[in-house]
């Protein structure tokens, strides 16, 4: 059986691409290794750039109704004294969209429903891909198929990248990250704001994602990490709100990961095949742009297909358009991650950060939020 187009991976990037291809009335199948779309990763922020694209896909209002609109993002010190502010209201007006914090599974389910569950094959973990006349795809469950066009949306550990491109240096930032989800009543002034609190070699962030749910994350430098680490003791010098959020969270609602990214790879495409999202340009989460950039990938591919149905020339143009922006985000996100995790000189860091004019912050943010085509 020959599939015209196969998308490997039903993450946010793969599902958005499916929605884009559906708009173009193209025949495709999405293959996902997981047996179901589960709430892994707890919460996520869809920035204004992603929300503009969801608007074009007719999904903006649904996402807003299932998530929580976020109008400001603050970086503070341990006592919640502001270091840096991103006021999104002017940008919301300019781009007619706002940031939305949402449960990751809620977003994926919305995208899956819209793409059509009949176009998604769950429990299909890719084992091997080979280039013959077409691409031969072999899955761990024994299923095999041929595909003319393949998109690798299979994440930072992409089997497609490893097997076809034989490249990809995954870098470890030396930071451990906990992500949690809890039922918690935030003070009203934080209902539509996201906070990231910088301490000495550690950070804590939180945002409301629905009526009762708060998503939070905590980072410590690897050299301070132990298997039995007690986060309430680690963050006991932070504002009491942080400790209350931590104490309210059930252990089963916390996941632990390393902070990693992908060193830039030379090429994202081969004949009739293209990588998108984390498979091509995984970034650390410090700018909140990982998933948003995979959504932009899907959008740009869709825009290029409007005027050109030759996938190979689309893939080449896609990389030319997207390369500079994602390389900048990967680089800047890595730098921000290092600065925010300083173990010494924090007062100097905070002073220097406070001295950056808000207008410069706004310009940097606007550059990220503006779509390329």
UniProtKB/TrEMBL annotation:
Domain of life: Bacteria
Pfam family, one: FAD_binding_3
One MF term in the entry's GO annotations: monooxygenase activity
Bilayer-crossing regions: none
Signal peptide: none
Keyword vocabulary terms for this entry: Monooxygenase, Oxidoreductase
InterPro entries cross-referenced by the UniProt entry: FAD-bd, FAD-dep_Monooxygenase_BioMet, FAD/NAD-bd_sf
Domain FAD-binding per the UniProt entry, residue ranges: 5-307
The name this protein goes by in its record: FAD-dependent monooxygenase
Organism of provenance: Chryseobacterium terrae
Lineage: Bacteria, Pseudomonadati, Bacteroidota, Flavobacteriia, Flavobacteriales
């Amino acid at each position: 059986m020959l599939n015209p187009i196969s998308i490997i991976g039903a993450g946010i990037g793969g599902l958005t691409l499916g929605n884009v291809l559906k708009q173009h009335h193209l025949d495709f199948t999405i293959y996902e290794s997981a047996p179901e779309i589960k709430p892994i990763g707890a919460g996520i922020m869809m920035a204004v750039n992603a929300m503009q694209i969801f608007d074009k896909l007719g999904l903006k209002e649904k996402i807003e109704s299932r998530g929580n609109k976020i109008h400001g993002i603050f970086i503070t010190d341990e006592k919640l004294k502001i270091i840096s502010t991103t006021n999104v209201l002017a940008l919301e007006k300019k781009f007619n969209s706002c940031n939305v914090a949402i449960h990751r599974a809620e977003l994926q389910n919305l995208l899956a429903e819209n793409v059509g569950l009949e176009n998604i094959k769950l429990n299909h973990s890719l084992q091997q891909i080979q280039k013959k006349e077409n691409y031969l795809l072999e899955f761990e469950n024994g299923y095999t198929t041929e595909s003319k066009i393949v998109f690798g949306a299979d994440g930072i550990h992409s089997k497609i990248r490893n097997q076809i491109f034989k490249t990809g240096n995954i870098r470890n930032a030396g930071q451990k990250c906990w992500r949690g989800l809890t039922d918690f009543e935030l003070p009203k002034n934080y209902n539509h704001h996201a906070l990231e609190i910088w301490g000495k070699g550690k950070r804590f962030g939180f945002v409301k994602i629905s009526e009762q749910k708060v998503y939070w994350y905590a980072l410590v430098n690897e050299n301070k990490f132990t298997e039995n680490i007690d986060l309430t003791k680690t963050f006991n010098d932070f504002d009491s709100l942080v400790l209350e959020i931590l104490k309210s969270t059930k252990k089963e609602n916390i996941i632990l990961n390393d902070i990693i990214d992908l060193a830039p790879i030379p090429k994202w495409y081969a004949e009739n095949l293209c990588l998108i999202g984390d498979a091509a340009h995984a970034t650390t989460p410090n700018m909140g742009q990982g998933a948003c950039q995979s959504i932009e990938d899907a959008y740009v591919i869709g825009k290029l297909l409007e005027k050109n149905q030759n996938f190979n020339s689309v893939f080449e143009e896609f990389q030319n358009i997207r390369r500079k922006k994602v390389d900048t985000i990967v680089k800047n996100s890595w730098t921000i991650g290092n600065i925010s995790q300083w173990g010494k000189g924090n007062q100097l860091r905070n002073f220097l950060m406070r001295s950056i004019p808000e207008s410069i912050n706004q310009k940097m943010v606007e550059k990220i939020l503006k779509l390329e085509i």
